[in-house]
Amino acid sequence: MQDQLTLPETNDRVTLFTALMPQIRELLREERDQIAALANVAAALHQTFGWHWVGFYRVMGAELVLGPFQGPIACTRIGFGRGVCGTAWQEERTIIVPDVSKFPGHIACSSASRSEIVVPIRDSDGRIAAVLDIDSTQEADFSIVDGHALEQLCELLEPLF
Ligand code: SME
Questions:
Q1: Domain limits, the chain
Q2: Distance CA 22, CA 108 (A)
Q3: Which end of the chain has fewer CB atoms within 10 angstroms, the N or the C?
Q4: How many CB atoms lie within 10 A of CB 29?
C-alpha cells in the first residue's frame, strides 16, 4: 500500500475530492476491516482538507458511539435525535450547519467548531449504521457540493457495515 496521499496543490475542494476518491477506493480495496478502513478514511479527509475534526460515530443500539477520528477528543455517545449527528441519523439525511450556535441542541465537543456537516452511512440492508461527522473552525465552511462529494464517499463505505 502507498504510505501517503497524492494530492494536487490546490484549495479547490472539487479538484481535491476528485483526486482523493480513487485513493479512498484503493484503501478500501486493500483493507476490509471496519476500524482499520474508517481510521484511514478519517485521516485521509483530515489531511486533505485540514478540517478541525473528522470522524465516525457508529450506531450501537439506541446511541451513536464514537469511532475512528482525527482531531481533539470528542463526546463518546450521542442519543437518537440528539445534536447534529443524532438528527442526521433520525432524519436519514445529510445535515449542513453553517453556524453551530444556531442549531438547537447542537452538542459542542469543541469550542473551536463553527460549522459542521454530518452524512449518514447505510449498511447493506439500507439501515443507517454510522455517520460521518466533520467540524470546521470556519463559519459556513460546508456547501451542498461538499455534501454530494461526501455522500459519494460514504456510499463506498457501505460494504464495511
Ligand atoms: N457536534 C456534534 C457532536 C459531535 S462533535 O462535533 C465531534 C453534534 O451536535 O452532534
A1: 10-160
A2: 33
A3: N
A4: 11
The x, y and z cell numbers of residue 96, run together, are: 449542513
Ligand 1 near 107 CB (within 6 A):
yes
Nearest CA among 112, 117, 108, 103 for reference residue 148: 117
Maximal C-alpha separation, the chain: 43
Question: Would you tell me how many other CB atoms lie within 10 Å of the CB of residue 97?
Answer: 22
What's the fold here for domain 10-160?
A: Beta-Lactamase (3.30.450)
* Residue located nearest, by CA, to atom 5 of ligand 1: 109
Instruction: Give this prediction's pTM.
Output: 0.97
Q: How confident is the model at residue 3 (pLDDT cuts 50, 70, 90)?
A: confident
Residue nearest to atom 1 of ligand 1 (CA): 107
What are residue 123's phi and psi, to 5 degrees? -90, -175
SS3 assignment, position 81? coil
Q: Which set of grid coordinates corresponds to residue 56? A: 465516525
With a 6 A CB cut-off, is 36 part of the ligand 1 pocket? no
**Helices marked H in 31-74:** 34-49
